[in-house]
Amino acid sequence: MAALAAFLCLTGADAQQLPALKVSANHRFFTADDKPFFWLGDTGWLLFSKLTREEADQYLDTRAKQGFNVVQVMVVHSIKEVNAYGDSALTGKNIATPKVTPGNDPTKKAEYDYWDHVDYIVNKAAEKGLYVAMVPVWGSVVESSKIGPEAATKYATFLAERYKDHTNVIWMDGGDIAGSLFNSTWNAIGSTLKQLNPNHLVTYHPRGRTQSSTWFHNQSWLDFNTFQSGHRTYAQDTSKNEKLHYGEDNWRYVNVDYNLKPTKPTLDAEPSYERIPWGLHNIKLPLWTDADVRRYAYWSVFAGGCGYTYGNNDVMQMHKDNDSKVGAYGSTQMWYKSINNLGAQQMQWVKKLMLSRPYFERVPDQSMVAGSLGVKYNRLLATRGKNYAFVYTYNGRNFTVNATKLEGAKVKASWYNPRTGESTTIGTMTKGAAMKFNPPGEQKNGNDWVLVLDSI
């Protein structure tokens, strides 16, 4: 315990440091030490409040070994926020007065407070190579407590000063809420964090089926956009606004953000979670699967996204043994079991593929598909560099490719398996405008493949 106490006494400057993330020169991606950084996130929303130090170690260690490099976490998700040790985040349920006690020795109850526990987890994440995207206060808290700009500025100042030296911290303003609600509060938080932490990236987490760019794209504090494509099926998306009637087509949000000026990176920060019911609220409906989270990943990234955030119903709420048998949205498994679900294990392969070729030159290019792009589950998504191209099919249907934009006279073709990360060579062939390909296996949803073309 003495060693642990000594570790907790480390400041952000003294603890394990990761390279600060920056927006790339072309404003499409992220870099770390001028090297490509592909955001592979996990929604560990209740990490700070639900898990003990030992449990947090297990969670972070597992996600790091699975290839994740970002964890999205709520700092305060309830005005009555209390962590696993019974420590309150706030004094008098007032966001402007975080409850901080002198010292941080975990063996002394009077010293080790809520914020010391957050410090421990942020430092431990850095030790394992993980960045922490911290949501200062969840949208429902701001709405129910009617938190205004003045209190929000005081709270954001506290956060910025406490974590200014933690290079693995990313600020994610908002929290599942439309930016039009309490707009001045969100702008106060975002601008305060950016002013006091100029070297930290700042973004906004919107409500389901919306994107941060709708309200904040032109704000100087917003470094990159995120969107929440949400958990609804095509049939459940009954949006009155036809322009937002996207259903499961999360690539459409990327298309919107990709064409905005000024150019900023964008990513799906909350698609459908593995093991959560279609549409969230009716727990008798089927659950989203590993095939679905793969589809959301490749669709959004190939459309031009700078990364992707995975989510799991049981893990995001850290469903534990002492919780109700059935958690929110019908959660029935414990977080420490669901953390190894298939979808979580398969996410590393999208990151591996994207970093396997020249990264910063990559662009989305649907003209690579010769013929029908397809709708819904037949949709094909294509992306390319100068000497390579990737085409994703979710159901393994036959398709035709126009490879004339690639350099060279010939291409080497191969199939990349999103379930295993394995590549199978098809062969070398003359580059053409109508090259036909037949993915392995029978056509069915979840028989997804990536066609890889490399110039020769």
From TrEMBL:
<feature type="domain" description="Putative collagen-binding">
    <location>
        <begin position="363"/>
        <end position="454"/>
    </location>
</feature>
<protein>
    <submittedName>
        <fullName>Collagenase-like protein with putative collagen-binding domain</fullName>
    </submittedName>
</protein>
<dbReference type="InterPro" id="IPR025277">
    <property type="entry name" value="Apiosidase-like_cat_dom"/>
</dbReference>
<dbReference type="InterPro" id="IPR024749">
    <property type="entry name" value="Collagen-bd_put"/>
</dbReference>
<dbReference type="InterPro" id="IPR017853">
    <property type="entry name" value="GH"/>
</dbReference>
<dbReference type="Pfam" id="PF13204">
    <property type="entry name" value="Apiosidase"/>
</dbReference>
<feature type="domain" description="Apiosidase-like catalytic">
    <location>
        <begin position="25"/>
        <end position="361"/>
    </location>
</feature>
<dbReference type="Pfam" id="PF12904">
    <property type="entry name" value="Collagen_bind_2"/>
</dbReference>
